[in-house]
Amino acid sequence: AQSVTQPDIHITVSEGASLELRCNYSYGATPYLFWYVQSPGQGLQLLLKYFSGDTLVQGIKGFEAEFKRSQSSFNLRKPSVHWSDAAEYFCAVGARAGGTSYGKLTFGQGTILTVHP
Amino acid sequence: DAGVIQSPRHEVTEMGQEVTLRCKPISGHDYLFWYRQTMMRGLELLIYFNNNVPIDDSGMPEDRFSAKMPNASFSTLKIQPSEPRDSAVYFCASRPGAFLYGYTFGSGTRLTVV
């Protein structure tokens, strides 16, 4: 079964600083990979996704993520953080194969991002 | 499109009572998912449907939980009887047939069982 680890529970950065949120996955083949963001009291919003091809994917709000097969990682980055980026971020993995695993996402525990002015 | 619509947004109930959470997926989406979010366990998949048929309910915690999808535009998650440990935010999500398009989540129902 697939699994996702987000090693950092809470990260604090200053506004304007760069950001990297870590995500490691466990899956027998190349999975589908996603990053979602959740603002307080809201549902999850899709930031970006990786399916195949270019390992550097661009998303909304200036975020990008890089798939590294050798490291089983899919880290999220942003060159300059804005105060409005403060939220909780979730990495998720989806199985490519058939069976009951196909079609469902497994989420990491989330990383809370605090942005200091 | 109004997105995935969940109701109610908040529910406070007493232990032992029946609770019904509702979800209207996006029209045309073939898949519907119910997730539970808690501080301790994060986001857990409870059950998902494909074309109104339950595909995987292995995440349903116990028999007190049941979910139905009588048609393509409506699903319910029922807890009977409710217990304080069921307190959580319950999310419904839907997506089209292709994984490529990702999930769309509702705003969630915050359930408090006292």
Kindly describe this structure.
The complex is a heterodimer of chains A (117) and B (114). Chain A is an all-beta fold and 117 residues long. Helices cover 0% and strands 50% of the residues of chain A. Chain A is built from no helices and 12 strands. In chain A, the strands form 3 sheets. In chain A, strands 2, 5, 6, 10, 11 and 12 form a 6-stranded mixed sheet that branches. A 4-stranded antiparallel sheet of chain A has the order 3-9-8-7, with no helix packed on it. A two-stranded antiparallel sheet of chain A has the order 1-4. In chain A, strand 7 (56-58) and strand 8 form a beta hairpin. Chain A starts with a strand and ends with a strand. Chain B has 114 residues and is mostly beta strands. Chain B has no helices and 11 strands. In chain B, strand 4 and strand 5 (42-50) form a beta hairpin. Chain B starts with a strand and ends with a strand. Chain B has strands spanning 5-7, 10-13, 19-24, 31-38, 42-50, 53-56, 65-71, 74-79, 88-95, 104-105, 109-113. Chains A and B meet through strand 5, strand 6 and strand 11 of A and strand 5 and strand 10 of B.
